[in-house]
């Protein structure tokens, strides 16, 4: 009897606090990434000396890949989802704090710590939202069949993750807007940007020359004010989750999900998945999904924005990117539901190739500020294809082994991030543009090969099914005729 009462109490708690927990997590992530994204966007300009900023970001993604394979399963299993999210955010925030004193001895180690925190935080966040949805539907609709429960869970997850992603992407736009409101008085010498000598270094011709006239170190108080805003926003987000988010009760739902597998098992399963041709064909697109975001935040912001009009415009221009990306995700998601999935990738390819070609041929100047806003919005539209659409495509083509498939997806996505920040200091911008064009073109061609093969295979299967039905009908007719003959013969006798 006590067990039943305890169960009913947990059910009421879930019903009462479900949307509260989802809302608090969403707002917490909004505030947290309002602090992280502005810092991330100005790294190549703020900490450009000897490539410090990009080296730290590259280390972050390297350790995030390591954490995805090695540490996060253990941490999430031991701490639980709520405290793993909080712990991951706390590690994440060390990178923001390191920008108060950006040196190799502070920023690089904090980048590594942030990578481990990111791996733990993102895994715990996904598990928390998923388990909340599963438990809520299970106990609200206990009388439904298994198929009906799965449909309701899928619908609820679509709503919950849609709400979360709205707040998450809004953090990019709001954070960058706030950074531009803080930084405009930093740059006191923007007139130097207008000289022909300076403009010759900008755009595709930029080869990591120091931008002394745009580095905000000229006014340290503004740098500290900017970092204080970012760190404060992140800490408020963490406190919201620590104070107001409920721990999930043990409800008999599988809590160990990934923890049942050892690290070695997960690594071997990821490598074994390479034997599938589809997986090999998706590697270029997986790399590009990781390349395109850092390319925009690192290369475009430094060589086209900071070099041309000043660091204080980065936030305003990135707001266009932050608004266009979630809108395009919604549009392309609707297109994919209408069975025009290939069209999404073609549009994404056209959007990014058009911007890359423009970056190669265009000579930016301070008078072309509107073009920078427009390019940022178009790039955001293309971004709405690569990560979310490719993630969904993996769930379609690898339904029988989704864990290994998604492990590979995150592996190549993280590898793309590492490469993008790793080559940032060593190559000229025009070389990176050519590499980006090559990878995205090869990636989309490989994707279309998969789609064509799926189409041919499904058409062949439909034909085989049709023929098998006809054969069964013919055979049944033949059997019915044969079964009648003995009766007729007996009747004649």
Q: What's the arrangement of secondary structure elements?
A:
Elements: H1 2-41, H2 43-46, H3 52-69, H4 72-79, H5 81-98, H6 104-140, H7 146-182, H8 196-200, H9 220-244, H10 263-272, H11 277-306, H12 314-337, H13 341-361, H14 369-397, H15 402-422, H16 429-492
Helix pairs in contact: 1-5, 1-6, 1-7, 1-9, 3-6, 3-15, 4-5, 4-6, 5-6, 5-9, 6-7, 7-12, 10-15, 11-14, 11-15, 11-16, 12-13, 12-14, 13-14, 13-16, 14-15
Protein described:
The chain is an all-alpha fold. Helices cover 79% and strands 0% of the residues. It contains 16 helices and no strands. Helix 14 packs antiparallel against helix 15 (402-422). It is globular. Residues 185-190, 213-218, 251-260 and 483-493 have low confidence and may be disordered.
């Amino acid at each position: 009897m006590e067990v039943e009462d305890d169960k009913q109490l947990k059910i009421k708690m879930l019903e009462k606090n479900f949307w509260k927990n989802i809302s608090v997590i969403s707002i917490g992530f909004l505030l947290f990434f309002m602090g992280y994204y502005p810092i991330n966007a100005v790294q190549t300009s703020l900490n450009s000396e000897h490539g410090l900023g990009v080296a730290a970001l590259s280390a972050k993604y390297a350790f995030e890949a390591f954490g995805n394979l090695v540490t996060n399963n253990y941490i999430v299993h031991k701490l639980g989802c709520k405290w793993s999210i909080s712990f991951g955010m706390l590690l994440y925030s060390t990178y923001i704090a390191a920008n108060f004193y950006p040196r190799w001895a502070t920023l690089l180690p904090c980048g590594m710590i942030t990578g481990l925190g990111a791996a733990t935080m993102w895994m715990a966040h996904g598990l928390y939202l998923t388990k909340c949805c599963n438990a809520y539907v299970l106990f609200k609709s206990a009388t439904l069949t298994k198929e009906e429960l799965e449909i309701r869970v899928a619908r609820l997850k679509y709503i919950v993750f849609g709400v979360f992603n709205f707040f998450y992407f809004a953090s990019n736009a709001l954070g960058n807007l706030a950074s531009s409101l803080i930084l405009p008085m930093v740059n006191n010498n923007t007139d130097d940007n207008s000289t022909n000598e300076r403009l010759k270094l900008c755009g595709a011709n930029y080869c990591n020359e120091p931008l002394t006239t745009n580095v905000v170190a000229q006014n340290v108080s503004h740098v500290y004010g900017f970092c204080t805003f970012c760190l404060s926003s992140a800490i408020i987000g963490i406190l919201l989750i620590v104070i107001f988010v409920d721990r999930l009760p043990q409800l008999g739902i599988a809590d160990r999900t990934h923890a049942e597998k050892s690290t070695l098992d997960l690594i071997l399963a990821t490598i074994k998945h390479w034997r599938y041709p589809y997986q090999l064909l998706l590697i270029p697109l997986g790399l590009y999904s990781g390349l395109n975001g850092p390319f925009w935040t690192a290369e475009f912001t430094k060589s086209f924005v900071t070099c041309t009009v000043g660091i204080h415009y980065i936030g305003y221009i990135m707001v266009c990117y932050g608004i266009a990306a979630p809108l395009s995700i919604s549009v392309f998601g609707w297109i994919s539901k209408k069975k025009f999935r290939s069209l999404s990738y073609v549009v994404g390819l056209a959007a990014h190739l058009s911007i890359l070609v423009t970056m190669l041929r265009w000579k930016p100047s301070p008078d072309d500020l509107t073009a920078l806003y427009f390019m940022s919005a178009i790039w955001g539209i293309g971004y709405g294809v690569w990560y979310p659409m490719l993630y969904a495509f993996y769930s379609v083509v690898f339904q029988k082994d989704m864990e290994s498939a998604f492990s590979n997806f995150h592996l190549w996505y993280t590898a793309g991030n590492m490469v993008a920040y790793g080559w940032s200091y060593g190559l000229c911008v025009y070389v990176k543009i050519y590499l980006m064009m090559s990878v995205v073109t090869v990636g989309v061609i490989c994707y279309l090969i998969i789609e064509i093969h799926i189409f041919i295979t499904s058409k062949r299967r439909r034909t085989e099914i049709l023929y098998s039905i006809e054969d069964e009908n013919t055979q049944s007719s033949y059997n019915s005729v044969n079964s009648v003959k003995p009766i007729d013969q007996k009747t004649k006798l």
